[in-house]
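Lecture 7 notes: from sequence to structure.
We start with the chain below.
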Amino acid sequence: MSENNKKPLNELELPRDCTFSPEDWRVLSQYWYPVAIADEVQDKPVAVKLLDVKLVCYRSNGKVVIARDLCFHRGAPLSMGWVENGEIVCPYHGFRYNCEGKCTAVPAHPSAKISPKLKLIVYPAVERYGLIWTCLSSAPEQIPSFPGWDDPDYLNILPPSFDIAGSAGRQMEGFLDVSHFAYVHTETFGDRNNTEVPQYKVKREGNELVAEYWSTVSNYGKGQDNPAPEGFQWLREFRVFPPFAASLTVYFPNEGRLRILNCASPVSARYTRLFCPIARNFDKNAPVEDAIKFNLQVFQEDRAMVEAQTPEDLPLDLQAEAHIPADRTSIAYRQLLSELGLGRPYTS
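Predicted structure tokens for the same chain:
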């Protein structure tokens, strides 16, 4: 939000038809989320939604701008308009706005003084890891660390965004879950003959969680060559960035590293747009399309389960669902969300 349009957190206006409780929405609005793939935001405005708020994303002379998708004159969506000379043009009456949200032209009255009310609500925008990030409350930048992306020894891969008719909390917990591999991912890398989850620990580092999980479950896809020696111990290191982002580093043979950043962007309480930058320091000459295809198949396998879970929202009351030792990370994740101030009955 621009400096002139900032409001205290408790005065932020809830979106119309908000699917979150007011308390949960105000907590979640304090965090940063990706809303678009950077390369898809070019010369035309793009409509996106975050926490039930309709936004427009576009470039103004190379600078990314994110604003409410609304012209305050007659409520037309600016995403239906266009960008001309660095200004976004309303499709209804041609009003023009600069990158700071100020109205610069009212074609019906070209010589008249423009009302200060004709100013867009503009939000901060940061381009990182091939994604466009924003925050609805203009809280200080808090974008997860993903060191592989800027390391010249790594190949960067960015699959398309992936929509899930399920909550961000459920998707995140599925990403952190280590006991579903053998049942959900049998077509990609799971093994029904290797179901046991060895003991592992979860530790807290500031407001982040770190889990190191060792097992013999291979990360090579079905049908791929598997050069790992027999009995190779795979390390999967998870790091959670609340509320809805986590990284996974998979330790391959011969110092290979696969890094994945899972960003579950809450479109609404029960609809999520997944962004997933990937970086690896091996197979750098292999077709990127193969990696994208493999990961999309994994996403699809997870999506089927997330969309079918009941309740749709992630219960933060630890008495609401049963738990097993393999659930250590998800239990700690639910406790962390509770600490943020989200409602105990459920959240998204």
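Points to note: The helical segments are 22-28, 168-176, 181-184, 288-308, 328-339. The chain has a mean pLDDT of 93.
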